[in-house]
Amino acid sequence: MTEHVAPPRWDFWARQFLFAALLGTIVGQWLMMLVGLVVPEGFGHVHSILFCCVYVPLGGVVPAVLWWSWRRWRREPSFRERPRGSDLRWTLLALGTFLVWSQSYTLVAWLAAGRELHYFPATLENALPFWPPATLVYLTVYWFVILPPLLAPDVLPRRRVAAAYALALLPCLLAFLVFPVGMARPAVDPQAGILEWGLWVVYRTDPPRNCFPSSHCAMAMIAGLLLFEIDRRLGRLGVLYACLIGVSTLLTRQHYLVDVLAGFAVAGTAWWVVFRRGRERAGAYWPEPSSPRSNAAHSSSGIGKVCSAAGNAPARTSSQ
């Protein structure tokens, strides 16, 4: 007799869909960069945006992730043992992180408008090639930053994840107010191609006065380190991707090298304070696993095992 399995709740599907859509958008932007290199005019501005944000995610990544999630839900009882409301809380944390970061960044830029800017020597930066295609890599930071809460809910205490994001962002915002740093940018012709147009839009919407330290690099690196706390192998890829985003800021003349390094340092400090220092003082921030199910959260590798661990994590960590 086949076991009856209750269908997933709506908040489970909402979290899975958001994760799949963001992952698909990252894949779409990489593909769009490759298309833009081969066909400079791309598909036109509107269709290029749709290609990144709609065609690729909805055409491939989203269906694949949702199908995989449904199979795991039906086949593995442990995947269904997450506390009620957990998926919704983690989804709200991810969306809240994006909103707080983007709006606080815009607010601080407005408050610092008109103030005297400081400039660093750009000898090394000018020696690097100016490469507009890196814009699409740079823009993936907005989606990459909020993947950790969506990828493995309940593997980490939610309050610590929120604290890590906050400690990575606040020093950057304070520095923007106290010591605003500007950077001279090269002229970009938006008519030259879709990639140049994308960088031109970035320049228009992000005035160069929030440079030091780079909040984009800080938030990207803290996301990579959060992935490292979730799963070591996945975290190594996350940290490497954060470094790639840092390189893209140099190739698009968004930041000085010192901005990038300072942003990484801020993220590393936030990670150490929230996770390593707390672990040294309190022993560990979650109990030692007492069963194979809970132990999966510590020994899993890859996205599939990470998400399985998310469903297996002890229920009491979700309220922390």
Description:
This protein is an all-alpha fold. The protein is about 70% helix and about 0% strand. It has one domain. The chain is built from 14 helices and no strands. The protein is globular and about 65 Å long.
Question: What is the secondary structure topology, with strand pairs?
Answer:
Layout: H1 10-38, H2 45-75, H3 86-111, H4 123-127, H5 135-139, H6 141-144, H7 147-151, H8 158-178, H9 194-205, H10 215-230, H11 232-251, H12 257-282, H13 292-299, H14 302-312
Helix pairs in contact: 1-2, 1-3, 3-8, 8-10, 8-12, 10-11, 10-12, 13-14
Summarize the structure.
With 320 residues, the chain is an all-alpha fold.
Give the key terms:
68% helix; disordered C terminus; 320 residues; mainly alpha; 14 helices
Radius of gyration from CA coordinates: 21 Å
Strand share of the residues? under 5%
What shape does the CA trace take? Answer: globular
> How confident is the prediction overall: mean pLDDT?
84
| Major beta sheet summary | none
**What is the N-to-C order of secondary-structure elements (H for helix, E for strand)?**
HHHHHHHHHHHHHH
Count of spatially separate domains: 1
Report the span from N to C terminus.
Answer: 39 Å
Assign the structural class, choosing from mainly alpha, mainly beta, alpha/beta, alpha+beta, or little secondary structure. Answer: mainly alpha
User: Helical residue percent?
Assistant: 55-70%
Low-confidence stretches: 282-303, 305-320
Number of strands: 0
How many helices? The count is 14
